[in-house]
């Protein structure tokens, strides 16, 4: 690469960084950052005492909740992987890509809220709330694996080989290992999703965790969180391909995904409840326009604005935290003990779901945007810091390179900044997706209005608001993809599988 090209690329990513930083600063100025608790320090001390002395025997249904969490995650991931694999085989069709993008843009909790109206607090609700968006996610990832696979083995097959033979004998073997690795990672994500489905009433570990923290039993809540951490941290130990069919069979036997509702309920929900009220009541297009205008003024535009503000503020803080935290995982800084401790911290932060963190900060700080910003930034900042630290392993420093702060500022930071920015852009759409769903906790994003409309049984409003979240996520994803393409000449390495979780 010539010196002029290097300068052009550097200027391009600096402008992009400045643009995003400016948007983030504006968002911080517009955000509601009030601390509503009169004495957050005292509440934090009570929480700390609970985490230091967890009560593992207070929750009588802990085993059942843990089994439900596993059952929903295993079945949801399996269904999502099968559905995504089928869609990936047709990935060349634009309609398939659009369908996959639409279903994965709706958060698991929003799917859960809709499915609750049809199947109630059942296994079907828990499994499909995970399986539907995961189908879109698997389709995208598997489809990209197939697109990037080496075409030479397929060309070497005998002339006249049918398409199925070409796929199963020439293409699938090339991507099978990557598909298995990604499915394992996605199961970890599904366990987190299954846990937080408890916040809408499903009998997973999140249901008991919410109850314990809301009632001030922090020792019980801490025990539940520790059990969840153990489940995630030991995943590689107990998740073996040879026993996976047995786990899946046990999950189906424990919680059979059988729909026991009335199919007429489903028909009525689709053909009546989701239809805008003016059309149901015969007010025509004029009434529909007035209805939409009222909804847009009272809920849609405020929800979109607040979602953007919270998401952009979180993106800025995520970048700052990633810059501060990546040395904890980089072999270029510290020693073995410090890196081990830093790695442990990053693992805990990126393993804890944003929803759990936001719920915790809401208890300590009270309702505002601040708990959501902190939760998203800590979780995503740990992920970006981990990925950036891994990238820094590829850097080779000269023998007389400085140490300490000079090494960070002058040797490492300029070389990892383009990749860190690429990781941030890749996570941007995920931050916005999680921002919207934090409204279920009472933070005034789009999810707040979606949850309110469901509670009021105004599902026509729910549908419009969910479509708005899909459109917002797709727009942010398109902008992020455009910016990444412009920065592609900066030498950034391909993102590892799972960085988009």
Helix content: over 70%
CATH architecture of the largest domain: Orthogonal Bundle
Please summarize the sheet with the most strands.
none
Structural class: mainly alpha
The helix tally amounts to: 21
User: Mean pLDDT, rounded to whole units?
Assistant: 87
Shape: globular
Membrane topology: Multi-pass membrane protein
Subcellular location: Cell membrane
GO biological process, one term: transmembrane transport
GO cellular component, one term: plasma membrane
Features of the shown structure:
single chain; 501 residues; mainly alpha; MetI-like fold; 2 domains; globular
Kindly describe this structure.
- The protein has 501 residues and is mainly alpha-helical.
- It folds into two domains: 257 residues, MetI-like (MetI-like fold, Orthogonal Bundle), CATH 1.10.3720; 207 residues, MetI-like (MetI-like fold).
- 75% of the residues lie in helices and 0% in strands.
- The chain has 21 helices and no strands.
- It starts with a helix and ends in a 15-residue tail after the last helix.
- The C terminus is likely disordered.
Describe the SSE topology:
Elements: H1 3-30, H2 40-52, H3 62-88, H4 94-104, H5 108-119, H6 123-148, H7 152-155, H8 163-196, H9 205-214, H10 218-233, H11 235-238, H12 244-254, H13 263-273, H14 277-280, H15 284-325, H16 336-351, H17 354-365, H18 369-392, H19 404-437, H20 446-455, H21 459-486
Summarize the structure.
The chain is mainly alpha-helical and 501 residues long.
